Amino acid sequence: MNILIVDDDEKNIKVLEGMLKPQNYCLLKALNGETALDILQQKDTDMVILDIILPGISGLDVLKEIRRNEKLKLLPVILISALSEREDRIKGLECGADDYISKPFDQTELITRITTQLKLSSLRNKFLENERNLNNELRNMISRLENANKELEAFSFSASHDLHAPLRIIGEFSKILLEEHSGNLNKEGKRILGIISHNTNLMQELIDDLLILSQTDIKEMRKQKINMTQLAKSVVKEQKGFLKDTREVTFVFKELAPAFGDEKLIRQVFVNLLSNAVKFTGENPKAVIEVGSNKKGNEFIYYVKDNGVGFDMRKINMMFTAFKRLHSQDQFPGSGIGLTIVKRVIERHGGSVWAQGKVNEGAVFYFTLPAGE
Length: 373
What we know:
3 domains, Helix Hairpins, single chain, 5-stranded mixed sheet, alpha/beta, Rossmann fold, elongated, Heat Shock Protein 90
């Protein structure tokens, strides 16, 4: 261990040498601050024992230079002071000194303080080395995850495109057969073509939803202030375009607080919740769907309420799990992923999702978003 002693009094240096040599330390000496800083730049040093009062550059100024130097800033420094130099000791500790010893020197105290600071320095260096290794490992892991996400994104796009193409062909040819060649088909043939067309549409919906689900976790969020009333009404307008002329659905809008988030992702939440509400009120001749919000603490609670078929609350744990259904596919077709997408999106925004319902009495779906962004 190399210890640099900085003192303008050679008698003090000799006293310290006499006390420290038996400990097998390699001792370096400087009679002033300028020489001390030169030595620190040229030789590896494990500790500095520094007198506060020096000719030229003071001990405190030397200490400040050490703490400003990127290479030396963690070097342990013990100040030498007289018992009467209390204010200087305080200033030294404020400037970054690790400890101090007073004159006249006590050998046991001196060795104890030096040993303690060297141990602390060693532990600190090990900690910093571990931190650097962990940071490097973390950066490598982040890089691997980013590459994996890019590969997943590319795969999702490719899979979606490659699967959609043959499905579109099947769907188009089925439609042509039904519209242009139905006279050549018997009742059973038309029924089979209808089944093919229906299941082709279901498969396309499933592929679309799987693609959306894969994107919710990896898509970079672009947060901004969102006019939730305007957003919900635009989705409702879109849903009305899908309604059959025979259906009567009343949409009620309560006050919707503005939100802060990724508008495209939040729009998908409304699409999934409102399309579900439309679907599950299909058996009600006077369907009513209500959209609103209220504030609780530091978050806004938004809801979509309907008077549809509802659900059994005993099965609530299945509600937001992919491919888990509370109703039969024949009665209410769908991919079984919509509510999973809702949950993922809202949780990425720091919110939560839940639902309440009763069989044949409707359902309410809630989601929260943080307020005050």
